[in-house]
Design brief:
There is one protein chain. By secondary structure, the protein is of the alpha/beta class. It folds into two domains: 198 residues, 3-Layer(aba) Sandwich (Rossmann fold); 122 residues, NAD(P)-binding Rossmann-like Domain (Rossmann fold, 3-Layer(aba) Sandwich), CATH 3.40.50. It has eleven helices and eleven strands. It has a seven-stranded parallel β-sheet, with helices on both faces. A four-stranded parallel β-sheet has the order 8-7-9-10, with helices on one face. The longest helix is centred in the middle third of the chain and has 21 residues. The relative contact order is 0.15. The mean pLDDT is 92.
């Protein structure tokens, strides 16, 4: 590889030392190889708000291979691995916890946290909750909505579901044989249900959009309540009822879904996304193609200077990113089981 960005070789060393085999991140590995030659982001100044964990380094490696200068940020409610600031600084990537006041060429956002930071060419947003915030904002921006395509479904259904159950097991909240009430049955909820049932849990569904509105009787016999709506403060109207139950409460949203009327101490991990207490909140194999798409949105916008508003990932772009994932074959059984 011929890329000459100062942090590039160090990032590759970290990837090789800290991550699992390249077979676990085929999309980012392919993106890194291609961009090291074409350098489509040469000289671009990028603010990246992707949650900062060890597997995010593979994402940074691809951006660095493309020639970008990267600033990583963990602001608002976005948690991060405390080991990572020192790791990133060693690779020449500046790490921040407060929103910067300068303009960047691109802002790569998560949960809409960085939407107030000016971006010359546009924004790429990683989450559904962030897309809602951009859509509701009075300021109109060009936003590549990575959450809106097929690729994001792999992460949100498989990766988040797996991460939720791994976090439960690793913190000794074993759901096997117990009744779990799932608030929300979209992509995240479907994945959580899939992995809960894999370990022998019983699942009860509440989702008003699917004709299953909440009633207090839904809490009867429930051991745990898991929120997975993707909507900020979705349950504030029923927060006191939930808080008064005997059930364990878990939030799997990117932001607080229980609302201000729910005491922070009442929800495990202080209302933060429950899987983010893990060293690997989402296993690399599940998030690989999403992070590659989040990266690719910047290059797509550069090559389509007339684009504006909310942009869904073009099908051909997603298929190109997924090609090495299909060749690796890691997710074949799970993708087929859930019809992804």
């Amino acid at each position: 590889m011929t890329a000459s960005a100062p942090q590039y070789s160090t990032l590759l060393e970290i990837v090789g030392r800290e991550l699992s085999a390249e077979r676990d991140f085929p999309a980012l590995a392919e993106q890194t190889r291609v961009w090291a030659q074409s350098r489509p982001l040469d000289g671009m100044d990028i603010l990246d708000g992707t949650p900062v964990f060890m597997n995010t380094v593979a994402k940074y490696a691809a951006l660095s291979a493309a020639g970008a200068k990267i600033t990583a940020i963990a602001s608002g409610d976005i948690t991060f691995d405390p080991r990572m600031p020192a790791v990133l600084e060693s690779a020449g990537i500046h790490f921040m916890t407060e929103l910067p006041r300068k303009q960047f060429d691109f802002v790569m956002d998560c949960a809409g946290v960085c939407r107030s930071v000016p971006a010359k060419y546009g924004y790429t947003e990683l989450t559904r909750s962030g897309i809602h915030l951009y859509e509701q904002d009075s300021v109109r921006r060009t936003v590549f909505a990575a959450d809106s395509g097929r690729i994001k479904a792999i992460e949100t259904v498989l990766g988040t579901g797996d991460g939720c159950v791994r976090a439960m097991l690793e913190t000794r909240y074993n759901p096997a044989g117990k009744l779990v009430l799932l608030l929300g049955h979209g992509r995240v909820g479907r994945g959580i249900e899939f992995y809960l049932k894999r370990v022998g849990a019983q699942v009860r569904i509440c989702d008003p959009a699917q004709g299953l509105p909440f009633t207090p009787s839904m809490l009867d016999g429930v051991w745990c309540v898991i929120s997975a709506t993707g909507i900020h403060h979705a349950h504030n109207s029923i927060a006191k009822t939930l808080a008064g139950s005997d059930a364990i409460l878990i939030n799997m949203g990117a932001t607080d879904e229980y609302g201000p009327d729910m005491p922070e101490s009442r929800v495990l991990y202080g209302k933060k996304s429950f899987n983010f207490q893990l060293k690997e909140p989402t296993q690399t194999r599940y998030i690989d193609s999403t992070l590659a798409l989040h990266n690719a949105g910047t290059v797509w916008m550069l090559r389509h200077p007339g684009c504006s508003g909310m942009i869904s990932p073009p099908r051909e772009l997603e298929e190109a990113i997924l090609a090495p994932v299909h060749r690796a074959g890691l997710l074949k059984q799970e993708i087929e089981a859930l019809g992804l």
